[in-house]
């Protein structure tokens, strides 16, 4: 129970990777502030079943004022945020010349700027406690690009840059900032891309699944949310005290190519 008595805030934790990481942190004893759209009650119940306290704030990560409200809510419920996981994210796939400008703005706001806002608001209390962990969920697309994902690739490269800058600013303190770069993880975000591909190419969902993995991920297996939870827990451990500013791939070999 390495995180007993600590508080973790995970953005976009009603589903997928965020919920998986929230569970892994709760298994280490951390109390949780959850966020995201959809089934908040279900996510809260899953976390509370692990024996920790959990609260939910429905801030829209594209709105700075709502993020400020969420961070104040977390402080009022638990005193401060010790572990901040910037995970909320969306995707849109289109060629750059066809990319709707409002989708570009939303992806940059949710996948990148929200992490700036949560980080700037979390760091003062972390500095005061001389302990904190900031874990940014970037992507293989934070290290390499794919066609038709200009906004996502720009946002994810951006969050890797933000991670490095924050790691340098906190380097002499007990606060660390690192990024995790998953390859394909079978969550609703990716299921939609598989379903769209099957429909577009007139193939089965299983074939679309295999094609998606075969194209990018040499292991031909999805990364799981449990594996990502394990890496987040490691980054919160004393063994990771000197892991600072890394962009750690967990991508079945995607970016080794
Ligand atoms: P998901 O769709 O299952 O979950 C996304 C979460 O973000 C949900 O809880 C959703 O409600 C929340 N969210 C979306 N828009 C929001 C907003 N405006 N305000 C607040 N919350 C919002 O997706 P996922 O696959 O679990 O993705 C989580 C993160 O992991 C994203 O940043 C994504 O880019 C990244 N990622 C995913 C994969 C993958 O293969 N699934 C790979 C690499 C990186």
* Strand residue content: 5-15%
Shape: globular
Mean pLDDT across every amino acid position: 98
Bound molecules: nicotinamide-adenine-dinucleotide
Strands, total number: 7
Q: Quick one: biggest sheet?
A: 7 strands, parallel
Q: What is the CA–CA distance across the termini?
A: 37 Å
Treating each run of at least 4 consecutive H or I residues as one helix, how many helices?
8
Radius of gyration: 18 Å
Q: Residue share in helices?
A: 40-55%
The SSE string, one letter per element, is: EHEHEHEHEHEHHHE
Strand order in the sheet with the most strands: 3-2-1-4-5-6-7
* Class by alpha and beta content: alpha/beta
Quaternary class: single chain
Enumerate the spans where pLDDT stays under 50 for 5 or more consecutive residues: none
